Amino acid sequence: MAYDVELAERIRTVVRSESGLTEKRMFGGLAFLVHGNMAVSASSQGGMLLRVDPATSESLVDEPLIRRFEMRGRAMDGWLRVDPEAVQTDEDLRRWVGHGVRYARSLPPK
């Protein structure tokens, strides 16, 4: 399944003015990176893949439609799956994308 092009465009609108922004095809989706660090991706599985501070993973997955990203059956702290229903409004999208951008900004540039 290809990533949601409309969602990718909505994400692009939110992050457009971010310093050091690049886009890259990753994990079958379209990722948005800040200074080489992935912040958010329009996922090929629908919704978003979001990179966050691992220390915040537990509190963020308490919200509906948010869960840890799983790789090879292992839940990963610092990586979240955000269901499409969680970002239907622009306000919700900005909020979730903001988590990813803030964390990516906190990392050393690559």
Describe the SSE topology.
Elements lengths: L4 H11 L5 E6 L2 E6 L2 E6 L5 E4 L5 H4 L5 E6 L2 E9 L7 H17 L4
Helix pairs in contact: 1-3
Report on the structure:
The protein has three helices and six strands, in the order αββββαββα. By secondary structure, the protein is of the alpha+beta class. It has a six-stranded antiparallel β-sheet with strand order 1-2-3-4-6-5. Helix 1 packs across helix 3. The relative contact order is 0.21. The model has no long low-confidence stretch (mean pLDDT 95).
Q: Please report the distance between the alpha carbons of the first and last residues.
A: 29 Å
Mean pLDDT across every amino acid position: 95
Q: Figure out the total of helices.
A: 3
**How would you sum up the major sheet?**
6 strands, antiparallel
Approximate helicity band? 25-40%
Task: Give the overall shape.
Answer: globular
Strand content: 25-35%
Low-confidence stretches: none
- H/E element string? HEEEEHEEH
Compact summary:
The chain is an alpha+beta fold. It contains 3 helices and 6 strands; from the N terminus they run αββββαββα.
Key features?
29% helix, alpha+beta, 110 residues, globular, 3 helices, six-stranded antiparallel beta sheet
